[in-house]
Design a protein that fits this description.
Number of domains: 2
CATH class of the largest domain: Alpha Beta
Number of helices: 9
Order of helices and strands: EEEHEEHHHEHEHEEHEEEHEH
CATH topology of the largest domain: Rossmann fold
Strand order of the largest sheet: 5-6-7-3-8-9
Oligomer: single chain
CATH architecture of the largest domain: 3-Layer(aba) Sandwich
Radius of gyration: 23 Å
Shape: globular
Strand content: 25-35%
């Protein structure tokens, strides 16, 4: 029995297909990163797994149960993108209230200490900063010692130190055999945390594999050079990422390409003047963007 099972799921909002025949299985103890641009369907998928919405077609199971069944959700912790905290309640009161819904909650003092909120226990939540509210939201998802945690953009609005503290808390939870499914716009966050990456766009799963395999599959390279007359219209350029003029009339260009060897051969064959050629591996963000664009182009061709 998997921690999360999604089989052939479709979900529409009017004429918009948010999820299109999506299947996904997350085993107990996995930490899976869900990547995709805005509107890709990530949050919709988490809302189905958490039982907030029902699919129009297909099956969703949380530890073998329908997540709309309250008994299924007793094993679940959730941090949505936006958390509505009662502004007049104190931090400690909110944690006590949420913890009271579970049979063996983490002691409030211990949880607040773990998330760097111990000094804020008597503060009203309405007086907290955005980053403090976000830390509190993630803390509340773990107060019931859940078996499965869904984190939708967990570190949005946090500074570097706050983000690092939450990463440590997520790693600690996962090290205790906890299952994590998280979405993030911070691709370095997924790179830092996830063992497995699911790429989703336009409601479809484009890739589902280990982080290393996803990066290897894309194989994007960033090529930089300075030129006067480059005409690369016939080369296999993925996209020009930037250009800048230099003081002596030369232009510095950056290109993201799938095959750097072929690109350089085309550049030489074009007869263009160039200098200062540099080639390096693409970042996860660049690789992700290339994968989405490539899969969407293939889908359009079919």
């Amino acid at each position: 029995m998997s921690a999360v099972e999604v089989r052939g799921v479709t979900r529409r909002f009017g004429n918009v297909v948010a999820l299109d025949d999506v299947s996904l299985e997350v085993e107990h103890g996995e930490l899976v990163g869900l990547l995709g641009p805005n509107g890709a369907g990530k949050s919709t998928l988490l809302s189905l797994v958490s039982g907030q919405r029902r699919p129009d077609a297909g099956v969703v199971r949380l530890t073998g149960r329908d997540p709309r069944d309250a008994r299924a959700r007793t094993v679940l912790g959730l941090t949505p993108q936006e958390t509505g905290l009662p502004a007049t309640l104190r931090v400690r009161e909110v944690v006590d209230f949420v913890g009271g819904h579970y049979p063996d909650p983490v002691p409030t003092g211990e949880l607040l200490e773990q998330f760097g909120l111990a000094d804020l226990g008597k503060r009203q939540t309405g007086s907290l900063s955005g980053g403090q509210k976000r830390r509190l939201a993630v803390a509340m998802s773990l107060v019931g010692r859940p078996r499965v945690v869904l984190l939708d953009e967990p570190t949005t609005g946090l500074d570097v130190s706050g983000r690092t503290a939450l990463w440590d808390a997520i790693r600690e939870y996962h090290a205790g055999a906890g299952t994590v499914l998280l979405t993030s716009h911070y691709l370095e966050e997924v790179q830092a945390l996830a063992e497995r990456v699911v790429v989703i766009d336009h409601g479809k799963v484009l890739a589902d594999d280990s982080l290393d395999t996803i990066l290897g599959r894309v194989g994007a390279r960033r090529v930089q050079f300075t030129t006067r007359t480059a005409d690369l219209s016939d080369t296999q350029v993925t996209r020009v990422t930037s250009t800048s003029d230099t003081s002596d009339g030369w232009v510095r260009e950056e290109h993201l390409v799938a095959d750097s060897d072929a690109f350089v051969r085309d550049l030489v064959a074009s007869g263009a003047e160039f200098r200062d050629l540099e080639i390096r591996g693409a970042s996860l963000e660049e690789a992700f963007g290339q994968l989405v664009n490539h899969e969407n182009l293939e889908g359009a061709a079919r």
